[in-house]
């Protein structure tokens, strides 16, 4: 398979016009009006848009520790099905990815699955406990070449630890991806957006300000330390305002938004269905509108899935006791197509920037997020923007079924994905 | 009506019918033989995920006086820690071929979720800080017996509204019956989003108990949980009582025929003084005795159905 060459005929290159692409030896060998190549497998790409392979800054693959919910192999298949060629695997596994050895293990398992580049994220603090720095430098020097560090699932809430982490990673060009949740304002029982609906439902709420105060603190710490901070899963209009201000001041802050925060709102919780329980929680429409605008104007740099598979028996509890998180890899591009492209807010070139170029740059992944041009790595995705489909949770590569998009009709279909010239998804079929 | 999960499940006619049936059931309590054969052969399970002796025994008696077979199942402790999901627990109990499932759960929404997973009728006997619809029914029943039709009556509910399941059910049910409701609490104990909520649903809120006290026909005092007192919700119990307690002084400033409710258990001296709790205006003991009758009515309408 890996030696195969592909001739993609007539794909719309980032929405700028139709062209042919020849993928050979892992690279893009030719672009333009190309004649038939005898050895190449031909892909008729009439009506398909070609984008650089997607890069997810925020994926939970659950291995090691919760292989009943997802494995690196199954999560990689879900990533390929969603058009991704690289995913950053969050550190909150069991054991936590807080050593070089743990990070290399994930890298190796990803290579063995061979469907997507699995780049480990290192924990900021040992065991995600928020107390002592993990071996950030050893993880950076390891074969896994870790550059993104995060305690995601938990906030690095101690300002002194956050300051030290930001300072320390400057030595090797690292970035701290922060799960912004002030734990006194949004404590352990907080399970949904604090507002009228949480008042009516009697659910302990998590106010937007608990995110905003951490984002505000962290951009000031980034300014003070001259380091880079990345805000994971921004969920409120207030956080957007802070990030926008920080960027205007030249502070090195980047931010991501999840597909679910671009489309789903807190009113879905009225039936207490734990599929819609996620952290940070689904917010009201005003926040969704602000997030869409911020993604369109570049205040938010990237879309990242926060793909969070959970076994059924971890979700089928009372709402307050059920696990946080929802699937995201397979429907991400469709959600962005539906909310941002179809509505005219973003062009395909904008989508390429937000789902590939910028996340690759934030993560320091040299081989990803590259232009679709001759001699570049053949990492790309073909999407059929005119197709629509009703999402079926059971038709998933993930081992889990906590799919918030089940039963919804979304625009677009991921047709094929290529990782260094090898098809990982071909006409909707994962190529294991 | 298959389930009773929320006071919002009931329209005005249904409430009035339930209360009328409750009155008939209430009369039974004065008889020497209290049993009716209505639910003979039906099985009712009280599935309690947290302790509540009063509510459980009230449902148990209600079921027994209607001749149902009643089983109490205590499932205390987090199902998460036991490794069994709520769905497993509920379906296991339901698989025994029961007709009704009365659920008390420390987490809001649990009975709603269970109702989607089992065939039996589900009655919400209190879920987290969400609702307690049979408590609201018995509160309304008790109020109506004392002051008559609640349409236009002014009901003032005072206390820890954030953490009260009673207030949510009462708010809904009292408004269904046409009462005018005012919620009173310090800002830290108001439910989140109460401003827009009250605008939408048409009730009033105030931080000033004394402002609304003289116009109240019913003053409902809610328990302030001990664990809230150190949580920074208010500075001291003493300060709470001065601002929001039904003190002897406030008792004297109530309107002439106004009455006092408290769903219990009371913190005498904190939210209510003994003078108020034991005064002639107090319906508190009546609330307890109405409990069984109201729950008999609910079980009768849910499980007896038209074929009784």
From TrEMBL, chain A:
Pathway as given in its UniProt record? Pyrimidine metabolism; UMP biosynthesis via de novo pathway; (S)-dihydroorotate from bicarbonate: step 3/3
Q: Which CDD domains match?
A: DHOase_IIa
Record's catalysed reaction(s): (S)-dihydroorotate + H2O = N-carbamoyl-L-aspartate + H(+)
Gene Ontology CC terms, in alphabetical order = cytoplasm
Q: Which SUPFAM superfamilies match?
A: Composite domain of metallo-dependent hydrolases, Metallo-dependent hydrolases
UniProt-annotated catalytic positions: 306
- A Pfam family for this UniProt protein? DHOase
Q: Which GO terms describe its molecular function?
A: allantoinase activity; dihydroorotase activity; zinc ion binding
**What residues bind Zn(2+) 2, as annotated?**
152, 179, 233
* Domain Dihydroorotase catalytic, first and last residues per copy: 49-237
- Give a yes or no for keyword Protease in this entry: no
Q: What Gene3D superfamilies does this protein map onto?
A: Metal-dependent hydrolases (3.20.20.140), Urease, subunit C, domain 1 (2.30.40.10)
Cofactor(s) listed: Zn(2+)
| InterPro entries given in the database record | DHOase (IPR004722), DHOase/Allantoinase_Hydrolase (IPR050138), DHOase_cat (IPR024403), Dihydroorotase_CS (IPR002195), Metal-dep_hydrolase_composite (IPR011059), Metal_Hydrolase (IPR032466)
Please give the coiled-coil regions recorded for this protein: none
Family statement drawn from the similarity comment of this UniProt entry: Belongs to the metallo-dependent hydrolases superfamily. DHOase family. Class I DHOase subfamily.
**Reported function:** Catalyzes the reversible cyclization of carbamoyl aspartate to dihydroorotate.
Q: Record's HAMAP family?
A: PyrC_classI_B (MF_00220_B)
| Name of the featured protein | Dihydroorotase
TrEMBL record, chain B:
- Cellular component terms (Gene Ontology): cytosol
- Per UniProt, L-aspartate binds at 82, 165, 223
Describe which pathway this protein belongs to, using the record's wording.
Pyrimidine metabolism; UMP biosynthesis via de novo pathway; (S)-dihydroorotate from bicarbonate: step 2/3
What's a single GO MF annotation on this record? amino acid binding
Enzyme Commission code: 2.1.3.2
How is the subunit organization of this protein annotated in UniProt?
A: Heterododecamer (2C3:3R2) of six catalytic PyrB chains organized as two trimers (C3), and six regulatory PyrI chains organized as three dimers (R2).
Domain Aspartate/ornithine carbamoyltransferase Asp/Orn-binding, which positions? 152-302
* Residues bound to carbamoyl phosphate: 54-55, 104, 132, 135, 264-265
Write out the entry's keywords from A to Z: Pyrimidine biosynthesis, Transferase
Question: What the protein does?
Answer: Catalyzes the condensation of carbamoyl phosphate and aspartate to form carbamoyl aspartate and inorganic phosphate, the committed step in the de novo pyrimidine nucleotide biosynthesis pathway.
Q: Which gene encodes it?
A: pyrB
Q: What is this protein called?
A: Aspartate carbamoyltransferase
User: Residue ranges of the Aspartate/ornithine carbamoyltransferase carbamoyl-P binding domain?
Assistant: 2-144
Cross-referenced SUPFAM superfamilies, in alphabetical order?
Aspartate/ornithine carbamoyltransferase
- Which top class of enzyme applies to this chain? transferase
One GO biological process this protein is involved in is:
'de novo' UMP biosynthetic process
Annotated family: Belongs to the aspartate/ornithine carbamoyltransferase superfamily. ATCase family.
Catalytic activity, reaction form? carbamoyl phosphate + L-aspartate = N-carbamoyl-L-aspartate + phosphate + H(+)
């Amino acid at each position: 398979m890996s030696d195969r060459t592909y001739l993609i005929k007539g794909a719309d290159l980032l929405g700028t016009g139709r062209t042919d692409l020849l993928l050979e030896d892992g690279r893009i060998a030719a672009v333009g009006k190309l004649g038939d190549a005898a050895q190449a497998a031909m892909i008729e790409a009439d009506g398909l848009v070609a984008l650089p392979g997607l890069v997810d800054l925020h994926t939970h693959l659950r291995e090691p520790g919760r292989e009943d919910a997802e494995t690196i192999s199954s999560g990689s298949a879900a990533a390929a099905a969603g058009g991704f060629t690289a995913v950053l695997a969050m550190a909150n596994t069991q054991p936590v990815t807080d050593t070089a050895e743990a990070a290399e293990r994930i890298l190796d398992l990803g290579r063995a699955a061979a469907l997507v580049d699995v780049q480990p994220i290192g924990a900021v603090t040992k065991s995600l406990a928020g107390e002592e720095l993990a071996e950030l430098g050893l993880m950076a020097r390891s074969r896994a070449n870790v550059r993104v560090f995060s305690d995601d699932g938990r906030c690095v809430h101690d300002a002194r630890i956050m300051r030290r982490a930001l300072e320390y990673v400057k030595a090797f060009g690292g970035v701290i991806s922060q799960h912004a949740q002030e734990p006194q304002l949004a404590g352990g029982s907080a399970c949904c957006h604090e507002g009228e609906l949480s008042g009516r439902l009697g659910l302990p709420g998590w106010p937007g300000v608990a995110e905003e105060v951490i984002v505000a603190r962290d951009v000031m710490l980034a300014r003070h330390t001259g380091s880079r901070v990345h805000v994971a899963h921004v969920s409120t209009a207030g956080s957007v305002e802070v990030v926008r201000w920080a960027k205007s001041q030249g502070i090195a802050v980047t931010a991501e938004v999840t597909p679910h925060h671009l489309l789903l709102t807190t009113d879905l919780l009225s039936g207490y269905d734990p599929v819609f329980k996620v952290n940070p929680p689904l917010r009201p429409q005003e926040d969704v509108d602000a997030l869409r605008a911020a993604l369109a104007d570049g205040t938010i740099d990237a879309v990242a899935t926060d793909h969070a598979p959970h076994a059924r028996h971890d979700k089928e509890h009372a709402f307050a006791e059920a696990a946080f998180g929802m699937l995201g890899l397979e429907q991400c591009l469709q959600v962005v197509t539906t909310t941002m492209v179809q509505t005219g807010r973003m062009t395909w070139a904008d989508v390429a920037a937000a789902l590939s170029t910028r996340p690759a740059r934030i993560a320091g992944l040299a081989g990803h997020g590259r232009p679709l041009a001759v001699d570049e790595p053949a990492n790309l995705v073909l999407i059929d923007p005119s197709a629509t489909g009703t999402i079926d949770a059971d038709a998933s590569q993930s081992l889990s079924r906590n799919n918030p998009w089940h039963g919804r009709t979304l625009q677009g279909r991921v047709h094929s994905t290529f990782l260094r010239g090898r098809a990982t998804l071909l006409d909707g079929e994962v190529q294991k | 009506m298959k389930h009773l999960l929320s006071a919002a499940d009931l329209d005005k006619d249904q409430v009035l019918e339930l209360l009328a049936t409750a009155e008939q059931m209430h009369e039974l309590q004065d008889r020497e033989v209290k049993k009716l054969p209505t639910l003979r052969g039906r099985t009712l399970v009280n599935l309690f995920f947290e302790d509540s002796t009063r509510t459980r025994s009230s449902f148990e008696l209600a079921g027994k006086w209607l001749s149902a077979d009643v089983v109490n199942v205590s499932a205390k402790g987090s199902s998460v820690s036991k490794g069994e999901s709520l769905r497993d627990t509920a379906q296991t109990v339901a698989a025994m071929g029961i007709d009704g499932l009365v659920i008390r759960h420390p987490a809001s929404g649990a009975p709603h979720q269970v109702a989607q997973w089992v065939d039996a009728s589900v009655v919400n006997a209190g879920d987290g800080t969400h609702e307690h619809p049979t408590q609201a029914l018995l509160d309304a029943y008790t109020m109506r017996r004392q002051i008559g039709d609640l349409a236009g009556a002014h009901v003032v509910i005072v206390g820890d509204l954030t953490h009260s399941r009673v207030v949510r059910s009462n708010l809904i049910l009292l408004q269904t019956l046409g009462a005018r409701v005012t919620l009173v609490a310090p800002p830290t104990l108001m439910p989140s989003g109460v401003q827009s909520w009250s605008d939408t649903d048409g009730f009033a809120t105030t931080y000033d108990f004394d402002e609304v006290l003289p116009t109240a026909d019913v003053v409902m005092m809610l328990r302030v949980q001990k664990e809230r007192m150190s949580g920074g919700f208010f500075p001291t119990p003493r300060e709470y009582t001065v601002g929001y307690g039904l003190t002897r002084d406030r008792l004297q400033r109530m309107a002439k025929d106004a009455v006092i409710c408290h769903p219990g258990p009371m913190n005498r001296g904190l939210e209510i003084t003994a003078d108020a709790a034991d005064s002639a205006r107090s319906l508190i003991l009546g609330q307890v005795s109405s409990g069984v009758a109201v729950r008999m009515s609910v079980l009768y309408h849910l499980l007896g159905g038209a074929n009784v």
